[in-house]
Amino acid sequence: MMHLVQHVLQAFFLGIGGLFRFCFFQLLNVSFEDKYSKDLEYYWDNQNKTVDKNGFTTSQKNFLAGLIIFISFLFLIKKIEG
């Protein structure tokens, strides 16, 4: 049971992070220049274990971005509640 919960939470953070990174880089492409990938599969490819020049895999970057977005939403909700 614990393994299932862990898998669901990990998939949630990977998905949210991948979607956020895709939207963010598309915004950068429109605002500045087209130098980031426009392929959604690139951002949702959590099976790719290739390490980028910054030392992270795509899934590690997605997980971190998803975790940061989730924590930011928690702080935002807490701030709105007063």
Question: Can you put this structure into words, describing what you see?
Answer:
- With 82 residues, this protein is mostly helical.
- The chain has one domain (1-47, 57-81).
- The chain has three helices and no strands.
- The longest helix is centred in the N-terminal third of the chain and has 30 residues, at 2-31.
- The N and C termini lie far apart (36 Å).
- The relative contact order is 0.17.
- The chain crosses the membrane at residues 12-32, 63-80.
- Keywords: Membrane, Transmembrane, Transmembrane helix.
> In terms of per-residue confidence, which ranges show pLDDT below 50 for 5 or more consecutive residues?
none
Classify the oligomer. Answer: single chain
> How many runs of DSSP E, i.e. beta strands?
0
Helical proportion? over 70%
Instruction: Report the total helices.
Output: 3
Q: What sort of overall outline do the alpha carbons produce when their principal axes are compared?
A: flat
Radius of gyration: 15 Å
Determine the N-to-C terminus distance.
36 Å
Strand content: under 5%
How would you summarize the topology of this molecule?
Blueprint: H1 2-31, H2 40-44, H3 58-81
Keywords: Membrane, Transmembrane, Transmembrane helix
Transmembrane segments: 12-32, 63-80
